[in-house]
Recover the amino acids of this structure.
């Protein structure tokens, strides 16, 4: 009888010892967790999209065309800045067709071998024409489209490696990029060229109004 | 006969004396206790240690950054209450590195202090854009985080004078602590956020950072 009581006591004690650690492991994380509390906030910053374009000075082509001077060149540069992640496009258009006029007189818009595709400056005999080219970091199509020049020429002669196209009254993209620009922006230089070939342009002051438009892509 | 009688009396007396003394010593303590009796009980109350933290408001930084605005600030606050006799610590961490991101499009680098773990006066190097934080409040060490009592101007985005900033990490950095029980209403710690682009454009869009504050009973 006494032996049986000792056996029962030993068994009960052993079971209790096994159960205690199980209870501890089960509840311990919860007890520790109760000593910490957390919260999350969302911080939001909006970066507005923006686009700027510089305002270059009007262009006076040089030299003057005359009975003894057949060619004239000029240039203007537009600098575009944007923080648009998809970048910008810069396009040019003329206010009139043809672009360069003096009252009823005008220079025809440059005629490319393939309409709309810039090519090396060349004015057919018996005509007088006005066109443009462009160079800069972001010129669309790069040097393959606009040539390899990094200047507009000299002494009224367009740079021989540049490629020219005639103005239209609709936008012609000259530059584009698909990323944010540097804060200082990216400059695109536009070269203007005019030439009379075995024909006289009537004397006078000819003007063309050229509009450059930068647009976020 | 008489002598025998006296001897009997003496023996009987001595035995009576022994018995009386034995009875006295046996019963005396009981009799004494019977005059003043007492008992003790032990009363136990467990005060469970706890800590709570308020729901901090999400922060919309102002003004918007753009091509003509380079700086922005924002703020939030957490109130911590605890009955821990050793107080609490309040830590903050970001969910990502860097913390302030516009998806895969762009991000602001985490603020680069001269000594990364030591908050300093806000200054963003040229050609970089950065995002950092500061803190102020009763349980914030001014020597570490600065002497400011606000986060700066939401009109100009310029941080408060006297504030000190550091960059977020994905592990907790303690911004406030004390070593005792707080008031029932708790103690509020304010956190300031700042972002700046310097000589470089952040791509336009909406940038977010997820910041988690954890209060731990010390």
């Amino acid at each position: 009888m006494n032996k049986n009581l000792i056996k029962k006591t030993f068994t009960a004690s052993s079971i209790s010892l096994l159960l205690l650690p199980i209870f501890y492991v089960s509840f311990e994380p919860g007890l520790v967790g109760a000593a910490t509390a957390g919260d999350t906030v969302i911080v939001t910053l909006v970066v507005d999209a923006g686009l700027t374009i510089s305002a270059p000075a009007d262009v006076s082509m040089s030299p003057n065309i005359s009975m003894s001077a057949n060619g004239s060149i000029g240039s203007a540069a537009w600098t575009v800045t944007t923080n648009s992640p998809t970048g910008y496009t810069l396009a040019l258009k003329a206010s009139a067709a043809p672009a360069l006029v003096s009252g009823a007189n005008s220079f025809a818009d440059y005629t490319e071998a393939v309409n709309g595709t810039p090519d090396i400056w060349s004015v057919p005999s018996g005509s007088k024409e006005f066109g443009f080219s462009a160079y800069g970091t972001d010129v669309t199509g790069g040097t393959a489209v606009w040539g390899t020049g990094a200047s507009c020429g000299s002494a009224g002669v367009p740079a021989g490696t540049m490629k020219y196209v005639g103005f239209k009254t609709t936008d012609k993209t000259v530059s584009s990029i698909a990323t944010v620009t540097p804060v200082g922006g990216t400059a695109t230089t536009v070269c203007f060229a005019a030439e009379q070939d075995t024909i006289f342009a009537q004397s006078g002051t000819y003007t063309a109004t050229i509009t450059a438009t930068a647009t976020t892509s | 006969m008489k002598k025998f009688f006296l001897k009997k009396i003496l023996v009987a007396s001595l035995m009576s004396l022994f018995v009386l003394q034995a009875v006295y010593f046996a019963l005396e303590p009981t009799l004494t206790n019977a005059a003043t009796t007492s008992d003790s009980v032990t009363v136990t109350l467990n005060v469970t240690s706890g800590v709570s933290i308020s729901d901090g408001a999400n922060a919309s930084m102002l003004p918007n950054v753009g091509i003509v605005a380079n700086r922005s600030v924002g703020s939030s606050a957490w109130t911590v209450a605890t009955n821990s006799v050793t107080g609490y610590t309040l830590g903050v961490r970001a969910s990502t590195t860097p913390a302030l991101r516009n998806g895969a499009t762009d991000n602001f680098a985490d603020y680069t202090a001269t000594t990364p773990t030591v908050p300093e006066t806000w200054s963003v190097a040229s050609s970089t854009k950065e995002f950092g934080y500061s803190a102020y409040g009763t349980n914030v060490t001014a020597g570490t985080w600065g002497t400011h009592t606000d986060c700066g101007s939401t009109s100009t985005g310029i941080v408060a004078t006297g504030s000190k900033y550091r960059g977020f990490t994905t592990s907790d950095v303690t911004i406030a602590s004390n070593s005792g029980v707080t008031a029932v209403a708790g103690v509020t710690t304010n956190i300031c956020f700042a972002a700046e682009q310097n000589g470089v454009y952040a791509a336009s869009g909406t940038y977010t950072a997820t910041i988690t504050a954890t209060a731990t009973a010390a």
